[in-house]
From TrEMBL:
<comment type="function">
    <text>Synthesizes nicotianamine, a polyamine which serves as a sensor for the physiological iron status within the plant, and/or might be involved in the transport of iron.</text>
</comment>
<protein>
    <recommendedName>
        <fullName>Nicotianamine synthase</fullName>
        <ecNumber>2.5.1.43</ecNumber>
    </recommendedName>
</protein>
<dbReference type="GO" id="GO:0030418">
    <property type="term" value="P:nicotianamine biosynthetic process"/>
</dbReference>
<comment type="similarity">
    <text>Belongs to the nicotianamine synthase (NAS)-like family.</text>
</comment>
<dbReference type="GO" id="GO:0030410">
    <property type="term" value="F:nicotianamine synthase activity"/>
</dbReference>
<keyword id="KW-0808">Transferase</keyword>
<dbReference type="Pfam" id="PF03059">
    <property type="entry name" value="NAS"/>
</dbReference>
<keyword id="KW-0949">S-adenosyl-L-methionine</keyword>
<dbReference type="InterPro" id="IPR004298">
    <property type="entry name" value="Nicotian_synth"/>
</dbReference>
<dbReference type="InterPro" id="IPR029063">
    <property type="entry name" value="SAM-dependent_MTases_sf"/>
</dbReference>
Length: 322
């Protein structure tokens, strides 16, 4: 286990301690400054493997992820309320400080989806949409302009704020609905969706995340697509990590680790009804490739990499056990 106070861990630990001492995580000068510093510290490419950290740092990381999740929720609530005060809220989305990141992440996810889906999805679910459902709004506005979006959140007030944002846009309000539900209690309805997006902060630790994934695997229709957000390297101090082996019941098609200002990694998987025999393909620098077979397969087709700045891509398709 790695536990030495190397500069990166020392900096993250210092920021965690300062964030923990805050009286409130609502947007303020101090909150914004500390979380900006934390993101900038974790953003550069790092070879750190959070699974090999000592227990003390692992516990700190778990607490930090929850603090980040709470702060992110409060930030989105603040800006959803602010945007809702305008006559046309969607005309002012640029006021949200991370709006450009959502534009880039949604473009990335759409590009990945189109490479693996033979048709445009009719019905899309977003689990954990929150009070500011920017991914759904961006995808529905710019990419999936005929698709219907069903946004799930356990918080009724979050759905109320989100619904208010799109109510002034006739096309979006026609194609976008909001459901106040614990996704673990949503069952047969999941069979209706061509694509399900799982937000990064649904399931704040490995156990919670796996339970949600297993639930989706049980009720999603075979052939449906699951899009998940994860984290890689030091970014795993900001968001939970989803490993391909966590996706039981799914064929993992691709894993993308952006190294620019888009923080989240993206995994895409297809719900299957029978086990698949697959290989592990690592594309480390978009120039050199190496293939590591995990079982004997007769067919293998590599994915053409996206042109998304500096990016690590893993087409990590592992043998699933059901």
């Amino acid at each position: 286990m790695i536990c030495q106070e190397e500069p990166l861990l020392a900096q993250i630990t210092r920021l965690y301690e300062e964030i923990s001492r805050l009286d409130s995580l609502k947007p303020s000068k101090d909150v914004n400054t500390l979380f900006t510093q934390l993101v900038l510290t974790c953003m550069p490419h790092s070879a750190i493997d959070v699974t090999k950290l000592c227990k003390r740092v692992q516990e700190m990381r778990s607490k930090l992820i929850r603090l980040c999740g709470e702060a992110e929720g409060l930030l989105e609530s603040h800006f959803s309320t602010l945007l809702g005060s305008f006559e046309n809220p969607l005309h002012h989305l640029h006021l949200f400080p991370y709006f450009n990141n959502y534009l880039k992440l949604s473009q990335l996810e759409f590009s990945i989806l189109t490479q693996h889906s033979v048709r445009v999805p009719v019905r899309v679910a977003f689990v954990g949409a929150g009070p500011l459902p920017l991914t759904s709004i961006v995808l529905a506005t710019y990419h999936l302009t005929e698709s219907f979006f069903h946004n799930y959140d356990i918080d009724a007030s979050a759905n109320s704020m989100a619904s208010r944002l799109v109510s002034s846009a006739p096309d979006l309000s026609r194609r976008m609905s909001f459901h106040t539900s614990d996704i673990m209690k949503v069952t047969d309805e999941l069979k209706a969706y061509d694509v399900v997006f799982l937000a990064a902060l649904v399931g704040m630790d490995k156990e919670e995340k796996v339970r949600v994934i297993d639930h989706l695997a049980r009720y999603m229709d075979p052939g449906a697509i699951l899009m998940l957000r994860s984290a890689h390297g030091a970014r795993a101090f900001l968001y939970p990590v989803v490993d391909p082996v966590d996706l039981r019941g799914f064929e993992v098609l691709s894993v993308f680790h952006p190294t620019d200002e888009v923080i989240n990694s993206v995994l895409i998987a297809r719900r299957v009804s029978t086990p698949v025999c697959t290989q592990l393909f690592l594309h480390s620098d978009l120039a050199s490739m190496r293939l590591q077979p995990s079982c004997k397969c007769s067919d293998f087709q590599a994915l053409n990499p996206l042109n998304h700045g500096s990016m690590i891509e893993e087409l990590a398709i592992n043998e699933n056990k059901y």
